[in-house]
């Protein structure tokens, strides 16, 4: 909550995501998924769920903009790669140019961003995702937080995975895929 008070526009929620949401957003990812990119891990609730599902800590790359959260993540997940960076800059190709990921988990408050920022984040993520891999995100809204025009431009589909009604506030999880990809 302190980080939200310091930077309310940069922090998606007042409180960390709950276990119900963490279990839902990570349920299709496990140790066989390969390397996982997490955007906006915050306190590491989704990160912990990923490790519990068998993703090796060394296979996690965490992109976090907040220096306070970066310090916390380094102490909690020392074997992971932690980048203190803005996820909207992934599309520039320098942060993760040599890496390919089996999944992306997004903890960013996309509804608080401009359509251009969201497109940059999604474009950059899919540039480093394996061809049939998926991008997972959550929203507190009634629809996917990636605008339809962005999905169309990037040739992506959004499918609702489920809802975490026991999360505060309740949230829905969506999976983005390249159109035509089979998993």
TrEMBL record:
The keyword Methyltransferase applies. This is Phospholipid N-methyltransferase. It comes from Sphingomonas xinjiangensis. Signal peptide: none annotated. InterPro entries: Methyltransf_25, SAM-dependent_MTases_sf. One of its GO terms (molecular function) is methyltransferase activity. GO terms for biological process: methylation. Keywords: Methyltransferase, Transferase. The keyword Protein biosynthesis does not apply. Pfam families: Methyltransf_25 (PF13649).
């Amino acid at each position: 909550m302190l980080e939200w008070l310091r930077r309310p526009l940069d922090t998606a929620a007042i409180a960390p995501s709950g276990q119900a949401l963490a279990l839902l957003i990570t349920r299709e990812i496990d140790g066989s998924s390969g390397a996982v990119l997490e955007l906006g891990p915050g306190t590491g609730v989704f990160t912990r769920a990923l490790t519990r599902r068998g993703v090796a800590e060394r296979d996690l790359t965490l992109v976090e903009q907040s220096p306070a959260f970066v310090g916390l993540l380094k102490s909690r997940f020392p074997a992971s790669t932690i980048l203190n960076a803005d996820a909207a800059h992934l599309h520039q190709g320098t942060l993760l140019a040599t890496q390919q990921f089996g999944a992306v988990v997004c903890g960013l408050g996309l509804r608080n961003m401009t359509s251009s920022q969201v497109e940059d984040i999604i474009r950059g993520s899919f540039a480093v995702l394996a061809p049939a891999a998926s991008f997972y995100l959550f929203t507190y809204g009634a629809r996917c937080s990636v605008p339809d025009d962005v999905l169309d431009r990037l040739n992506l589909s959004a499918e609702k995975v489920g809802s975490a009604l026991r999360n505060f506030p309740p949230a829905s999880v969506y999976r983005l895929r390249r159109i035509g990809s089979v998993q």
